[in-house]
Specification:
sigma factor, about 425 residues, DNA binding, single chain, about 70% helix, mainly alpha, RNA_pol_sigma70_r2, 20 helices
Length: about 425
């Protein structure tokens, strides 16, 4: 029995990992095959494929090539649908096949590596169609391409599950009603659509970097998926824009510090205490190359500024030598370009290291809308502690601890509380 239990657990972990990495590709390929208006059918086939893996792998063994197994099963399920619903004629006309006996070859064409990549690029842009509201665009990208749950998406938007469920439903209805096509836009429409695409990738990465999951501080799989989508855009001629390279640079700088963000027990290691020899210098160099590439245009996007801030942290030999003045200048520009309570809160930290913690307390009093945010109260506690005010520091840390669902963050806040 223990062996069976272990096999089931290992299979579940592998399927979960593959779902994060492959569900978006599979859904995109199947949607391109059946049509965007049948997105639900594509999602159902993906779910059925993953369930079949969960049921069979623990007892029949994990296949030598799990990814190939998933695509083969999904392809066969798609063929079953084609045969059962007798929709081959409509599908074949779209790609030039005339004989029904060619249906298997026709479906298989969609599952070639180049076609899978093309399908995902089409899906990425189709989900960001202007007919769909901006909030729903991002929610759909996170759900279909990122494999996030409704609850995870709600965390990324700082809202509730019901709101996200409604957004997803309205978006799918809009796709059906407006007969939105699965294609990459051209001309003047491309830059506007690309802006929404980049926002979706950014939020997907953020959910991995600062996970809302109570037991996972970092969701590496989500960050990897976001980086993969960013690379896809950077390798596609029509989307090789400065903002794409800036976002890719930002992700490289952040991922470079992953190994140093936690210790061997999984506890949080703050930036000031991180062992910088554990930072991935290859990724930092890759980030600098992407940031240099992003400077070729005349656009200064929010991703340029955030990447610049991340780079300044990465190139500082020690925490004490961090160029906080340059970081504050970047935040001043970022607040003007992307005014939000979260950006304003991060700017407060920079202010506190340039002008002192009392200046930080002065500015944090002007930040509104984060009363239920654990990071707001944690930063407030830090400012009080650094300014020699232990009682309000303790109160702020306690409030932050009550608000965070993360066990690792609770442990860190307990450490802070023990010293004030």
């Amino acid at each position: 029995m223990p062996d069976v239990t272990s096999s089931v657990k290992e299979a579940n972990q592998l399927v979960t990992h593959l779902f994060r990495h492959e569900a978006g590709r599979m859904a995109s390929t199947l949607t391109r095959l059946f049509g965007f208006e049948r997105l639900n059918l594509a999602e159902d086939i993906v779910q059925d494929t993953m369930l079949q893996a969960l049921y069979s792998w623990p007892f029949q063994g994990v296949p030598d090539d799990p990814r190939a197994w998933l695509y083969r099963v999904a392809r066969n399920k798609a063929l079953d649908v084609v045969r059962r619903e007798n929709v081959f004629r409509q599908i074949s006309q779209g790609i030039g096949y005339q004989q029904q006996e060619a249906s298997e070859d026709m479906v298989s064409q969609f599952f070639l590596d180049d076609e899978i990549t093309d399908s995902q690029l089409r899906m990425l842009f189709a989900l960001c169609h202007p007919a769909i509201s901006p909030e729903s665009q991002v929610a759909m990208c996170l759900k279909i391409l990122g494999g996030l749950s409704v609850h995870e998406i709600a965390g990324a938007f700082l809202t509730n599950d019901e709101t996200i469920t409604k957004r997803l439903y309205r978006a799918k209805e809009k796709i059906r009603q407006d007969a939105i096509r699965l294609e990459v836009p051209t001309g003047q429409e491309l830059p506007l659509r690309l802006k929404s695409v980049l926002k979706s990738i950014y939020l997907l990465f953020n959910e991995g970097y600062n996970s809302t999951h109570p037991n996972q501080l970092i969701r590496r799989d989500l960050c990897e998926e976001a980086m993969r989508l960013g690379l896809l855009l950077s390798e596609t001629p029509v989307t090789q824009t400065p903002a794409v390279y800036a976002l890719l640079a930002l992700m490289c700088f952040q991922v470079a510090r992953f190994d140093a963000r936690t210790d061997e027990t999984g506890a949080i290691v703050l930036l000031a205490d991180q062992d910088r020899s554990r930072w991935n210098q290859e990724l930092i160099q890759k980030g600098r190359m992407c940031l240099n590439r992003s400077a070729e245009g005349d656009v200064l996007s929010e991703y340029h500024l955030e990447a610049g801030i991340a780079m300044l942290h990465c190139v500082a030999p020690t925490y004490e030598t961090t160029n906080w003045s340059a970081i504050l200048s970047c935040y001043d520009l970022l607040v003007a370009q992307k005014p939000s309570p979260v950006v304003a809160l991060h700017r407060v930290v920079a202010v506190s290291y340039v002008e002192g913690p009392m200046a930080g307390l002065r500015d944090i009093s002007n930040v509104q809308g984060l009363e239920s945010n654990q990071y707001y109260h944690a930063i407030l506690g830090d400012l009080y502690e650094r300014s020699g005010q232990p009682i309000p520091a303790r109160q702020a840390y306690q409030q932050a601890r009550q608000l965070t669902p993360s066990l690792a963050e609770q442990q860190l806040l307990d450490q802070k509380l023990s010293r004030v």
